[in-house]
Automatic annotation (TrEMBL):
HAMAP family: RadA_bact (MF_01498). It comes from the Bacteria. This is DNA repair protein RadA. It comes from Novosphingobium flavum. A motif (RadA KNRFG motif) lies at residues 253-257. Residues 66-216 form the RecA family profile domain. Plays a role in repairing double-strand DNA breaks, probably involving stabilizing or processing branched DNA or blocked replication forks. Residues 353-455 are annotated as: Lon-protease-like. GO terms for molecular function: ATP binding; ATP-dependent DNA damage sensor activity; damaged DNA binding; hydrolase activity; zinc ion binding. InterPro entries: AAA+_ATPase (IPR003593), DNA_repair_RadA (IPR004504), P-loop_NTPase (IPR027417), RecA_ATP-bd (IPR020588), Ribosomal_Su5_D2-typ_SF (IPR020568), Ribsml_uS5_D2-typ_fold_subgr (IPR014721), Rubredoxin_2 (IPR041166). ATP binds at residues 95-102. The middle region has homology to RecA with ATPase motifs including the RadA KNRFG motif, while the C-terminus is homologous to Lon protease.
Length: 455
């Protein structure tokens, strides 16, 4: 038997190293390398081709029953999950501290418990009395949730093995769980991986839906080894600023439904309230249009959401270096768009400060926002408001072309439903929508002409 080798695992990105160092060579984080428990390394002569149990193969077209989803009682939560909880599934939910993860899961647990389902809520961070006080504050004190405060995975699985499998098992959080089969303190890479593996195996064997709450790093990604995200079936992120009341539950990975579905909530005194029409949250609602404001119909999974993009251009008199500030969009993409406007359209942004904001704390990743951002920038530069009740969408290339994007008809229907009557979009953006006039824009310089009014 060969001598076990020491391995060090980065708690931020999960990369392996053969020696300890202060900074991870892969992600650049400091003081994140921890020693992993030594593993038994067999020699080359060790043969695994015999002594095992034969496995049974099944044809691809074998008949099987589709699992019946269980509703959480919160339609926005169900939408983000792809339709509800799948029995035997494992869900990992991450979010900043204080964003409302425990509140959301407590509300969903109460809905399921009041509907006749068995719910087990294990808290490793709070005492049972603290969770009970939160439930009373939310008006959920009468919900028949089986509540406990524990951190030992062995104790949790022993207790669950002596009872009927619950419909929902919540572990808050996985970083506090501890397995006595692995050396190390709770929260280390080996402990998080081993604890999650045992809990996921119980969920698969029993058919209980498992929700693991995970901590996040300073850049917003889920803490712990990356293998944890591969082990679970669904990865969800609960996003939002604590200074804003709105929260977005986003699906980052889903083996049972579409990815990038979102559920929108608003934090209120009685907990999280669902927002069935999120487009109204991200629009200003003012009567008269102002320069530098454009409305963009974004797509989040299968849901269209109308957001307002705001731009401000400030001319500098001195030779100071102008600032470029972006909130809610990619700063590199805005720099590229400014270069295209200068090179292809003859506009001058080099001597001006440029500020771009997506209202409502919303974050855009849709490339179709290029045309709306360009319209807001040109409108702010020319100090001319854009036409009222108009939306803008399309992807801009480096050659100044406006390229078609997916789901054009869905975007137009959502805009028409909210009272918009015209849209500037690339050609071939889908079929016509009743009540919506579509203005085709093939080149970016045509957009500038329409806003400035030269043609």
């Amino acid at each position: 038997m060969a001598k076990p080798k020491r391995r060090y695992v980065c708690a931020a990105c999960g990369s392996l190293s053969t020696r300890w160092q202060g900074q991870c060579a892969d992600c650049g984080e400091w003081n994140t390398l921890t020693e992993e428990a030594p593993q038994t390394v067999f020699s080359v002569k060790h043969d695994l081709s015999t002594g095992g149990r034969p496995i049974q193969f099944e044809p691809l077209d074998a008949k099987g029953e589709m699992p019946q989803r269980r509703s959480t009682g919160l339609p926005e939560f169900d939408r983000a999950l792809g339709g509800g909880l799948v029995p035997g599934s494992a869900i990992l939910m991450g979010g900043d501290p204080g964003i409302g993860k425990s509140t959301l899961l407590l509300q969903a647990s109460a809905k399921i418990a009041l509907g006749g389902g068995t719910v087990v809520y294990i808290s490793g961070e709070e005492a049972a009395g603290q969770v009970r006080l939160r439930a009373e504050r939310l008006g959920l004190g009468k919900a028949p949730i089986q509540l406990a405060s524990a951190t030992s995975v062995r104790d949790i699985l022993t207790t669950l093995g002596a009872m009927e499998p619950p419909a929902l098992l919540v572990i808050d959080s996985i970083q506090t769980m501890h397995s006595d089969q692995i050396e190390g303190a709770p929260g280390t890479v080996s402990q998080v991986r081993a604890s999650a593996f045992e809990l996921i195996r119980y969920a698969k064997d029993s058919g209980a839906a498992l929700v693991l709450v995970g901590h996040v790093t300073k850049d917003g990604s889920i803490a712990g080894p990356r293998v944890l995200e591969h082990m679970v079936d669904v990865v969800m992120a609960f996003e939002g600023e604590r200074s804003h009341q709105y929260r977005i539950l986003r699906s980052l990975k889903n083996r049972f439904g579409p990815v990038d579905e979102i559920g929108v909530f608003a934090m209120a005194g009685q907990g999280l309230q669902e927002i069935s029409n999120p487009s109204m949250l991200f629009l200003s609602g003012r009567e008269d249009p102002v320069p530098g404001s454009a409305v963009f119909p974004a797509m989040e999974g299968t849901r269209p959401v109308l957001v307002e993009i705001q731009a401000l251009i400030v001319r500098l008199q001195s030779g100071a270096t102008p600032r470029r500030a972006v909130v809610g969009w990619d700063s590199g993409r805005m720099a590229m768009l400014l270069a295209v406007l200068e090179a292809r359209c003859g506009l001058n942004f080099s001597s001006a400060e440029v500020y771009l904001n997506v209202s409502g704390g919303y974050r855009l990743a849709d490339p179709a926002a290029d045309l709306a951002v360009a319209a807001a920038l040109v409108s702010a530069l020319a100090d001319r408001p854009l036409p009222k009740a108009t939306t803008w969408f399309g992807e801009v290339s480096l050659a100044g072309e406006v390229r078609p994007v997916a789901h054009g008809a869905i975007r137009l229907r959502e805009a028409a439903k909210l009272g918009f009557d015209s849209a500037h979009a690339p050609p071939e953006s889908g079929p016509e929508v009743p009540g919506m006039r579509r203005h085709d824009i093939a080149m970016l310089n045509r957009l500038v002409d329409r806003i400035v009014g030269d043609t």
